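Support request from a user on the community tier.

User writes: "When I paste my structure tokens into the form, the page sometimes reloads and wipes my input. The last time it worked, I copied everything first. Here is what I submitted, just in case something in the input itself triggers the reload:"
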């Protein structure tokens, strides 16, 4: 068995109804070299009692106020001592109990040192399950790589923490920066996790505003920034479908420009 240590971080705040299933999905992983870190934002709803119930299986946990989800995630990064780190936040779960062992046995981690491994996820929207594929080729204008289904080389993440000015799109900003820095991304066509839909991250208006800020901040060429922003809006609100139907020439022109820039 490999000696690679994997750090799993769970960030939680007042999520008593969902935290236990997340904890169980981590501590029941068949791979033994897991460091489990829980960062609680000072919950008052009984979440801490659930954490205490399993604290003998948790490497480190703390309950204190923070300055938002990305501040809490940064706390987890700073505490992590594993070679790789994953964020499985409250309500989300690993897809199977042996997913990490499966990746270890396939030498995925050994062959991706220094970079980012990313896979797919399934989304649970009130009991309706939908598979969601991670896509690197659309990252310039769409947030389609997810922290729950990614493993990031820990030393890389310690060097580049999340920008805490974001409420939703801090992970998108991080992945965008890593693309610009030409960090190695390794795709695995495997479901890594089950994502529980809901919460602030699913507020389309807030999300769109932050995604557009990420695009603007990470493209020094304002022509590219404007172009990717337009693509983002088209994708988010399905405007491209309306263009294709009612303004096919404009739709074709925009698509051709994008294909040339890829």
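"...and here is what came back when it finally went through:"
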């Amino acid at each position: 068995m490999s000696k690679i240590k994997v750090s799993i971080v769970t960030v939680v705040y007042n999520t008593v109804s969902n935290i236990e299933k997340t904890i169980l999905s981590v501590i029941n992983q068949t791979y033994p070299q897991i460091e489990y870190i829980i960062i609680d934002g000072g919950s008052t709803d009984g979440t801490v009692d659930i954490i205490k119930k399993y604290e003998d299986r948790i490497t480190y946990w703390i309950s204190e106020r923070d300055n938002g989800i990305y501040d809490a995630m940064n706390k987890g990064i700073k505490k992590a001592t594993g070679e790789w780190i994953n964020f499985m936040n409250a309500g989300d779960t690993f897809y199977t109990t042996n997913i990490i062992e499966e990746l270890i046995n396939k030498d995925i981690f050994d062959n991706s040192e220094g970079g980012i491994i990313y896979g797919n996820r399934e989304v649970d929207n009130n009991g309706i399950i939908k598979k969601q594929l991670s896509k690197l080729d659309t990252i310039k204008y769409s947030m389609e790589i997810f922290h729950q289904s990614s493993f990031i080389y820990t030393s890389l993440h310690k060097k580049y923490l999340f920008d805490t000015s974001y409420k939703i799109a801090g992970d998108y900003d991080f992945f965008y920066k890593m693309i610009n820095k030409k960090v190695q991304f390794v795709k695995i066509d495997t479901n890594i996790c089950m994502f529980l839909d809901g919460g602030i991250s699913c507020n389309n208006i807030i999300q769109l505003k932050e995604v557009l800020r990420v695009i603007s901040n990470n493209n020094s060429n304002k022509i590219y920034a404007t172009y990717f922003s337009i693509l983002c809006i088209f994708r988010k609100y399905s405007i491209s479908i309306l263009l294709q139907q009612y303004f096919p020439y404009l739709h074709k022109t925009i698509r051709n420009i994008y294909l040339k820039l890829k």
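Agent notes: The reload is a front-end session timeout and is unrelated to the input. The mean pLDDT is 88. The chain has two domains: 6-215, 219-262. Escalated to web team.
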